[in-house]
Specification:
The complex is a heterodimer of chains A (about 290) and B (about 325).
Chain A: E1 5-9, H1 19-31, E2 35-38, H2 50-53, H3 55-72, E3 76-78, H4 81-95, H5 98-108, E4 121-123, H6 124-140, E5 149-152, H7 156-159, H8 162-168, H9 180-187, E6 191-192, H10 211-227, E7 232-235, H11 238-246, H12 248-255, E8 263-265, H13 266-273
Parallel strand pairs in A: 1-2, 1-3, 3-4, 5-6, 5-7, 7-8
Chain B: E1 8-17, E2 27-36, H1 41-52, E3 71-74, E4 77-80, H2 86-93, E5 96-100, E6 107-109, E7 112-113, H3 116-124, H4 145-149, H5 168-172, H6 179-189, H7 199-202, H8 218-222, H9 229-242, H10 250-265, H11 270-278, H12 286-294, H13 310-320
Parallel strand pairs in B: 1-5
Antiparallel strand pairs in B: 1-2, 3-4, 3-5, 6-7
Helix pairs in contact in B: 3-6, 6-9, 10-11, 10-13
The chains are: A alpha/beta (about 290), B alpha+beta (about 325).
C-alpha cells in the first residue's frame, strides 16, 4: 500500500487543553507510518459559535484552512469532531453554491488563495478505518487491551447531521447506532460496551451559558457507561474529552450521583494497543487519572 | 416492465402500553409480525390495533406526512409513523423494534401523549404574522420569490413534535422553547411582511431561548420534513446580532469572543475566551482550572501559540466581517 499522507488540521485544543491529543495523534501516525503535514497556517474553525455571530466570516476562515490543504494536494485530516463539522459544512456549502463560493474566493484572492473544492475533509477516526484499514490495525496490535470493557462515546459532530458526514467518509455510520468506534475498540482487543448514551450530547457547547444542562448531559453519559460495567470511555473528540475528563465534579452534583471514569482519546487507545508508552501518549495529562495502564 | 419484489421479514415489536386512567406503571407488550418491505411504521400501529388489540391507542389522521399527528419513537428515534418505511427502520435497528410514544413521561394512553408543553411553547413565540394590513386592501400583498426564499422552508413545519422530543435540552430544562418553537419563530421573523418587534427578543432570552441550544444536531437528524431546525436556530442567533437585539451576556460574548481571539492569535485562546465571556464570574471556574493547570492543560498567556501567517487572517477579518456587536 502507498504510504498515507494527510494535511493535519490540529484545531485549538490539541495545542492547549488537550496536549495529550496532539501527542497521541503523532504517536499513532508514526506507528502506522502515516505522514502528517501540519497546517500551521490554519485558524480556529469557529467551533460552531463564530457562525452564530458572523456566518460569512466563518465561511471565509474555514475556506482558507481548506485552501491550504488543497495547496498541498492532500486530504485534510481533523482530530476534533467540531473542527470536522465546521470544516465539512463549509466545504458542503461552497461545493453546492457557486455564487457563495465566488463570494468567498473574492475574499481569499486578497491573500492570494483560492478555494477549489479539491481536498476531502475527514476525521482521523475514519481515515484510520477507511484508508488504513481495521484489519491491518488488528494485525499490528501488540498489546491487546483484552482485560478492559471500553465504552465508546461518539460525539455529536462526527455522526450528525448524517447526510453531511456520509459525503466525507466511506464508512456508512448509522447515527442511531454508530459502530465505527465500537469496531476500533474490538480491533484493539478490548470489549466494547453498549449503552444508551453512546451517541448522545456531552453538553460542551453550553458549558458557559447553561452549566446545569451541560453538567446533566455529561453526568448521564458517564453514568450510562458505568452502569454497563465500563472500565473506561473512549472518544474521538477532544471537546467531549474535556467535558468527561475534567467536569466530573459538576456532573456528579448535577445528577446527584458520584460519577467518574477514565476517558481515553481514540488515538490513545489505538496507541496503547500498538505498543506506544503511556508517556508518548500523554496519559499523565488527564484530570481523571488513567492509573491502570 | 420493472418488477419490485416485495420481501417479508419477521420482526419482534416491543410496544409501550399504558393507560393513565388504570395503570400505575407502563408495561411493554410483544407482538411478532411478518413485515413487508412496502409497509411504513403506521401500518404496524394499524395492524396492532386491528389484528391484536382494539384498545391500542395512537394519533393518526392524514397518512400523508401533513397533519403531524402520528410521530412516535422507534428504538428511541423520533419518527413520523406514516412516512418512515419499516425497511429503513430494520436497516437501522435490526429485527427487534421498540415502539414508544414521543415522550414516555407524558404518556396518556399508549402512543398518545400530553403535548401541552409543546403547544404552550409554540404559542409563546407569536407563531403568526404581525402586520398592519388594510382589512380591505386595494391590491394584493405580494411577496417576491426572492423574499419567500428567506423562509428557508421553515413554513413546511407540521408541528409533529419529532424534534422537540428528541432535543436533550428540552428534556433537562423545562423552560427551553425547543427546536420546533424556534422554527416557528424564524418562519415569521424571516417574513418580510412581519412587523413584530418582541418575538426575536423573546427567543433570545437566557434559559428559554436559542442560546441554550447544545448544538447536538438531533433535531436536524429527525425532522421528517428536512427543515433542519438547528439551521434556523443559527439564523436566529445571527438575526439577534444584525437587528441589534443581542444582549450583552455570557452567551453572546462567547460567540463574539471567538472573533477577538482569532484576530489576536489566529487560534482560539481558550482561557481568554472564558475570561471574555464570563467577566468576573470567571472565579467559579478556578477550581477546575487549577486541576487542569496541574496536569499541564493550561497555557499561560505569554506562551499562547499563534497561527502562522496571522496577517492573512487579520486581513480577512477586516475585509469579510459583516456584523458589529
Amino acid at each position: 500500500m502507498k504510504k498515507l499522507k494527510y494535511a493535519l488540521f490540529t484545531g485549538c485544543t490539541a495545542k492547549q487543553s488537550t496536549p495529550e491529543q496532539m501527542m497521541s495523534t503523532m504517536a499513532v501516525a508514526r506507528k502506522l507510518d502515516i505522514e502528517m503535514i501540519e497546517l500551521t497556517e490554519a485558524s480556529c474553525c469557529g467551533a460552531s459559535h463564530l457562525q452564530d455571530y458572523d456566518d460569512f466570516l466563518s465561511l471565509v476562515l474555514n475556506a482558507r484552512n481548506i485552501a491550504y490543504a488543497e495547496k498541498h494536494g492532500l486530504t485534510m485530516v481533523t482530530i476534533c469532531n467540531t473542527c470536522q463539522l465546521n470544516t465539512a459544512m463549509t466545504k458542503h456549502r461552497l461545493d453546492n453554491n457557486a455564487e457563495l463560493k465566488a463570494k468567498v474566493n473574492e475574499k481569499l484572492a486578497e491573500i492570494g488563495l483560492e478555494y477549489k473544492g479539491t481536498s476531502n475533509v475527514i476525521h482521523f477516526l475514519y481515515a484510520i478505518i477507511d484508508d488504513f484499514g481495521l484489519d491491518k490495525i488488528k494485525k499490528m496490535v501488540v498489546k491487546p487491551l483484552s482485560q478492559f470493557n471500553i465504552a465508546p462515546f461518539y460525539g455529536c459532530h462526527n455522526i450528525r447531521p448524517s447526510e453531511l458526514h456520509d459525503e466525507s467518509h466511506k464508512t456508512k455510520e448509522n447515527p442511531y447506532n454508530p459502530t465505527s468506534l465500537d469496531d476500533l475498540i474490538i480491533a484493539c482487543g478490548a470489549k466494547n460496551v453498549d449503552y444508551e448514551e453512546k451517541n448522545k450530547c456531552c453538553g460542551f457547547h453550553i458549558e458557559l451559558q447553561a452549566p446545569h444542562t451541560a453538567a446533566v448531559l455529561t453526568g448521564n453519559a458517564i453514568a450510562g457507561a458505568t452502569d454497563q460495567n465500563a472500565d473506561m470511555m473512549v472518544t474521538p473528540c477532544p471537546l467531549c474529552h474535556l467535558k468527561l475528563d475534567t467536569q466530573t465534579k459538576h456532573a456528579s452534583e448535577a445528577i446527584g450521583r458520584e460519577v467518574s471514569l477514565p476517558v481515553l482519546h481514540m488515538q490513545q487507545m489505538v496507541g496503547l494497543a500498538l505498543g506506544c508508552t503511556p508517556a508518548e501518549l500523554g496519559l499523565k495529562h488527564h484530570v481523571t487519572e488513567v492509573n491502570f495502564i | 416492465m420493472s418488477t419490485n419484489t416485495i420481501t417479508t421479514q419477521k420482526v419482534n415489536f416491543k410496544v409501550f402500553r399504558f393507560n393513565a386512567d388504570n395503570d400505575y406503571l407502563p408495561y411493554y407488550e410483544n407482538y411478532a409480525m411478518d413485515v413487508t418491505s412496502e409497509e411504513v411504521v403506521l401500518d404496524i400501529l394499524n395492524r396492532i390495533k386491528w389484528d391484536h388489540d382494539g384498545s391500542f391507542s395512537y394519533r393518526r389522521s392524514c397518512r400523508h406526512g401533513i397533519c403531524g399527528a402520528c410521530a412516535i419513537k422507534v428504538n428511541g428515534r423520533s419518527t413520523l409513523a406514516c412516512k418512515e418505511s419499516m425497511t429503513t427502520m430494520i436497516e437501522y435497528f435490526g429485527n427487534e423494534i421498540t415502539l414508544e410514544p414521543l415522550s414516555t413521561k407524558r404518556a396518556i394512553k399508549d402512543m398518545i401523549i400530553d403535548k401541552a408543553d409543546f403547544w404552550d411553547k409554540h404559542a409563546s413565540v407569536t407563531p403568526y404574522l404581525v402586520a398592519d394590513i388594510d382589512e380591505c386592501p386595494s391590491c394584493e400583498n405580494l411577496v417576491s420569490p426572492h423574499d419567500a426564499e428567506e423562509l428557508n422552508e421553515a413554513d413546511l413545519c407540521i408541528q409533529c413534535g419529532a424534534c422537540h422530543y428528541a432535543c436533550p435540552v428540552v428534556e433537562i430544562n423545562s423552560d427551553f422553547f425547543g427546536p420546533a418553537a424556534f422554527v416557528a419563530a424564524y418562519r415569521f421573523e424571516s417574513d418580510i411582511r412581519d412587523g413584530d418587534n418582541q418575538r426575536l427578543i423573546h427567543v433570545n432570552e437566557e434559559k428559554q431561548g436559542v442560546w441554550d441550544c447544545a448544538k447536538c444536531f438531533e433535531c436536524a437528524e429527525v425532522c421528517p420534513k428536512d427543515i433542519n431546525p438547528i439551521d434556523k436556530i443559527t439564523k436566529l442567533h445571527q438575526m439577534a446580532f444584525k437587528k441589534g437585539v443581542a444582549k450583552n451576556n455570557v452567551a453572546t460574548r462567547h460567540a463574539v469572543g471567538f472573533l477577538h481571539s482569532i484576530k489576536k492569535h489566529g487560534m482560539l485562546d481558550e482561557g481568554g475566551l472564558v475570561l471574555y465571556s464570563e467577566g468576573v464570574s470567571i472565579v467559579k471556574h478556578i477550581p477546575v482550572a487549577l486541576q487542569m493547570f496541574k496536569k499541564g492543560k493550561i497555557i499561560m498567556p505569554w506562551n499562547m501559540p499563534k497561527s502562522d501567517k496571522l496577517d492573512e487572517i487579520q486581513k480577512l477579518i477586516k475585509s469579510s466581517s459583516t456584523v458589529k456587536f
